[in-house]
Every structure is written in structure tokens, then in C-alpha cells.
Amino acid sequence: MSESRVHNQFKLTSDDYVGADVGEEVTLPCHLSPDTSAVAMTIRWFKETECIYLYKNGQVTERSGYEGRVSLITQELERGNVSLRLIDFRRSDRGVYICQVIHGEQKEEAAVGLRVRGGKCSRTPVMFLNT
After folding, report:
1. What is an annotated GO biological process for this record, any one (predicted)?
2. Quick one: 27 exposed, middle or buried, by C-beta within 10 A (0-12, 13-18, 19+)?
3. C-alpha to C-alpha distances, 106 to 14, 63, 103, nearest whole angstrom
4. Angle at 19 between CA 70 and CA 38, to 5 degrees
């Protein structure tokens, strides 16, 4: 049992879910623990099973429909922040997102749900009729 690689190990932490109003900017939180630079790591973000964002060797690939709307906070990568920023939130963006980080032989994943927060007028009106 070799423990020589233990100092290279990391875990991913995230929130269970976040909420946003339509049109807002929302951040899907995901962090390396302990704080480890993610600059040289491969970072993928999936919506359900579809890869919507890939960061590898400093290069970025965005899935159609997400182009120009998703990004990492690149200045935070050094501190292990691999959160995904999504601008112009749409109802169709709701769902489960998975952050995957790969470094060498290690691959870690964390999931976060994205919900519509709903404003003051989001409830369906209820009528009671007296008969």
C-alpha cells in the first residue's frame, strides 16, 4: 500500500442546488478541496449527459447553444475554483449539472442542480367558486 501519491489527491465540493431568475447570471459552484491549482487540469461541465463546456490545456470548447454564455472564472482556477458561470439564464437551462475534473489518473465529479427561482408572480392563481 503506497501512500506516496496522497498529497496529490483532491476532492470536489459543490452545493446541492442553486436557483436563478430567468435572464440572470448564475454561478454553479464547484471547488477543489484542499485548494489546489486547476490550471493544468482538464475540467468538463455536463448538463445531464451532454458536455457543454471543456477546459483543457488552456483551451476552451463550448457546446452549441451555450457559446458565449458559459465560462470559468479563470483568475480563480489557481485557487481551485472550477465553478461555471452561466449568463442569460433560460428556463431550458434547468437541470442537473456535473463538474468533472481530471488530473493524471484521478477523476472526480460533483453534481449541482439548477432551478428557476421564480419571482413574485410565479405561482398559479387559485380560484374558489362558491356554488
Report:
1. T cell receptor signaling pathway
2. middle
3. 18, 25, 5
4. 40
Number of Cβ within a 10 Å radius of residue 7: 7
Ramachandran angles phi, psi of 18, nearest 5°: -135, 160
Q: How far is CA 129 from CA 32, 57, 126, in A?
A: 55, 64, 10
CB 123 within 8 A of CB 65: no
**pTM exceeding the 0.85 threshold for the entire prediction:** no
Domains of the chain: 6-116 (2.60.40.10)
Reported as a single tens digit per residue, the pLDDT across 105-127 is 999 999 999 999 865 444 445 55
